[in-house]
Design brief:
This protein is mostly helical. It has two domains: 45 residues, no CATH class; 228 residues, MetI-like fold (Orthogonal Bundle). Helix content is 63%, strand content 2%. It contains 14 helices and two strands. It has a two-stranded antiparallel ribbon with strand order 1-2. The protein is flat.
Length: 360
């Protein structure tokens, strides 16, 4: 904040340096006595967008897995509370339109659930049940793909950044080779290759094997900086092995970069799986995903648009929720991100500073 020569600073904050000192004092007062993890957790839970995203994705996960149930690796089935399944053909009701009623203040005739809240397709499938199963597929792909990508990216980036030299060169050229592969085309080829009872898991694993390059380069850059720090030299002098230095000293200090970028991988995973399934290269019948639901109903867009509404809504909610969480984590881990104090907090801090100056 600049102040004209000979003028008085606006809002009574004094000079820019005094205003900055007040903001710093407020921030230091808020985090006084807290550990680094407590500060990060405090910043994250005070991020409104992240809380909205966390609540949204939690609601989607609970609804998707509790409503129609799920099968755990084919070993046993967990039943759900919804009365219909996604494979049975039911008699057409309400001209296959959604029976979900909106409340009066939204222009509806009153809140109602009905037998087929999301409607039915032309042959009688329950769209609610199919959408829930599709959301389950996207969620599983999202987490498995991100876990595989994070594991490969962390290992490659950590080894390259710590050891440097010829090993760094080989690993980075290997990474550059994977970067040149078009993700969508490569994913389509892998989607055609994988098959079996656990198609969803195999597809997520295969896509994770090509999605790790960005994280590997970020981890490498972080390790190149950390390896020159004093605590790494102290650990090396104390006789710690390279593996222990990486695991105990460097990885914990790089977790901010790892967690934030792994979270953002979740959103990209949802969109990639949806795109591949829509094009016919991802999940295939009898499997169900949000992308296959959109693809199967594309010819009915003008006559039965509700077939698109619900898969589209869940795709958007999943992608946006994960992005909001990623933004919150980025702001929480980045010490350069400062929350602007409210006018009331600034006024109180300014008053305390003025009282301290008078007393001194």
């Amino acid at each position: 904040m600049s102040t004209p020569l000979g003028g008085t600073p606006p809002d009574g904050l004094g000079t820019g340096s005094i205003g900055d000192s007040i903001e710093n004092a407020i921030e230091l007062k808020e985090v006084e006595g807290l550990s680094q993890s407590q500060i990060v957790r405090r910043r994250f839970f005070r991020h409104r967008g992240a809380m909205v995203g966390l609540a949204s994705i939690s609601f989607v996960i609970v609804l998707a897995f509790s409503s129609v149930g799920f099968s755990f690796l084919g070993l046993f089935d967990v039943p759900g509370w919804w009365k219909h399944d996604h494979t049975t053909l039911y008699d057409i009701e309400n001209s296959a339109r959604p029976t979900l009623g909106l409340p009066g203040w939204l222009g509806g005739e009153g809140l109602a659930w009905g037998d087929f809240p999301f409607g039915q397709d032309s042959v009688g499938h329950d769209i609610f049940a199919r959408t829930m199963v599709g959301a389950q597929t996207s969620i599983v792909v999202m987490f498995v793909l991100s876990f595989v990508s994070a594991a490969i990216g962390i290992v490659v980036g950590a080894v390259a950044g710590f050891f440097r030299g010829w090993l760094d060169g080989v690993l980075m050229r290997f990474t550059d080779l994977f970067i040149t592969f078009p993700v969508l085309v490569t994913g389509a080829v892998l989607g055609k290759m994988v098959s079996g009872d656990q198609l969803t898991l195999w597809l997520a694993f295969a896509l994770g094997c090509i999605f790790w390059t960005t994280l590997a380069r970020l981890v490498r850059a972080e390790f190149l900086t950390l390896r020159e720090r004093e605590f790494v030299d102290a650990a090396r002098v104390a006789g710690a092995s390279n593996f222990r230095i990486i695991r105990k000293h460097m990885l914990p200090n790089a977790m901010g970069v790892i967690i934030v970028n792994t979270t953002l991988l979740l959103s990209a995973a949802v969109l990639l799986e949806t795109a591949l399934s829509y094009l016919g290269f991802g999940i295939k019948e009898p499997g169900v995903s949000l992308g296959t639901l959109v693809s199967a109903a594309q010819s009915a867009f003008s006559t039965r648009p509700w077939l698109f509404w619900w898969p589209g809504v869940f795709i958007i909610v999943l992608a946006l929720a994960v992005n909001f969480i990623g933004d919150g984590l980025r702001d929480a881990f980045d010490p350069r991100q400062k929350k602007i104090p409210s006018a009331r907090a600034l006024a109180k801090a300014e008053k305390r500073l003025a009282d301290r100056q008078r007393n001194s």
